[in-house]
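As a warm-up, study this chain.
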Amino acid sequence: MQAKDSNPPDGGYGWIVVVSAFMVMGLTVAVLKTFGLFFVEIQQHFDELASTTSWITSVTIAVFHLGAPVASSLCVQYTHRTVVITGGLLAFSGMALGFFGLNMVWMYATTGFLQGLGISFSWTPAISIVSHYFSKKRALANAIASAGECAFAFTFGPFFQWLISQYGWKGALLIIGGIQLNICVCGVLMRPLASNCLLESSHCETETLPGNGASRIDKEDKSPIMHKTFNWMLVRRPEFVLYAIFGILAAMSFFVPPLFLVPLSYSLGIDESWTASLLSILAMVDFGGRLLCGWYANLHVTKTIHLLAMTITLISTSLMLLPLANNYLSLAIFTGFYGFFFGTTVAIHITVLADVVGMPEFDSALGLFMLIRSTGGFVGPPLAGLIVDMAGDYRAGFYMAGAALVLSAGFLVILDRLQERKKRGNQTRTKPEKSTLPYPSLHLLKNQ
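Now compare it with the structure written out below.
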C-alpha cells in the first residue's frame, strides 16, 4: 500500500524556498526560452547553416531532460541544496566557457551540454523541494514557483537584446553566466527539512532539552532524502505509467504552438512588429494562468487530476480554434486563450504527479517523468513539421497538437478511474468485521 503523505510545514520558511525556486525557474528555463536571440549572431560568426546552429539549443533541451533522473538520484543521496548549487556552477561554466567561442563543437559542449546539465541540476531539485515543504498549499506553491519562468522570460528578451548590442554575443554570454551564479544563492536558501519524521515509515525520537523546552532530533535522524534510494521500479506501477503516457502526448503538443505561431501570423500577412507582440501576450497570460490556477487548486474545490483534465481539454479546444483566426485581433485572442490554459496546466501537473505517486517516491518519479516526457518533446515538432509539409498549411500543426492533447486527457480519465477503484478496494478491505453474536460478552467468551 502507498505510503501516506507527509505533514510538511505548509508555510513559514517554505515560502523562502518558493521564492528561491521562483528565481531558479527564471534563471534556467527563461534563459533557455530566450536563447534564440543568440541564434543569428552565432550562425553569422561561424558562418554555419541554421540546422547546424540549432543543435546548440537541441543539445541543451536534450541534456536538460536526460539529466533529470541523475539530478533526482543525487537529491535522494545528498540534498536538494547541494544539487541546486552544483547546477548553478555548471550553468555558469557553460556560459562562461561559451564566451571563448572556439568553434561549433565547443559551443555544443559548453552552452549546449554544460548549460543543459546546469539547468537540469537546478530546475529538478528546485521544483521538487517545494513539494516537500507543502501539502495542503502544494498547488499554490508550485504555481508561484513555476511562474518565475514567465516573469523572467518577459524581461529577459529585451535585456538580452540590449546586452548583445552593447557587448556582443560573447560578452552577453559571460554576463548571463555571472547572473546565473545567483542560482547558487537560491540553492543555499533551500534548507533541507529537519527530520525524516515526515515519512510514515520513519521512527523519530525527540529529546527535550532541559531548561528551554526545545526539542532536538536524535543524532542518527537525517533528512528524509538521506536514507532513500532512487526507485527505478516506478515504471512497473500502472498509475505512474498512465501519467507518463499523458506526459509524452502533452509534450508532443506543447512545443508545437510556439514553433508555428510566428510563421502562421506571417502567412496571414500580419506585420512583423505585431507578430512580436503575440509572444508577449503569450508570456503575460501564461503567468496569470499559473497563479490563478494555483490559487483555485489551493481551495481544494476540485480534485487536482480533474482540474488538470479540464485544463487539457480547454487547451486542445483553443488549439483547434486558433487556426480559424484570419487577422491579428482574432489570432491574439486565440493565442491568449491558449497561453492562459497552458499556464494553468503547467501550474498543477507536478502537483498531480505528487498525488499519484506520493511524496516518499516523488523525487524518483519527477526524474523518471522528465526523462520519459522528453520523447514527446523530441517527436512532436518534427511530426508537426511533417504534417505541415504534407498539408502545405501551418494550421495543420495546430490541429495535430490539439488532437494529441485530447488523447492525453483520455489517459488522465483512465488514471482517475484506476485510482478510484483502488481506493474503493482499500476501503472494503479495511472495514472491521462485525460480530454475529448478539452480545459482546458472548463474543469475548467465544474468543476465550
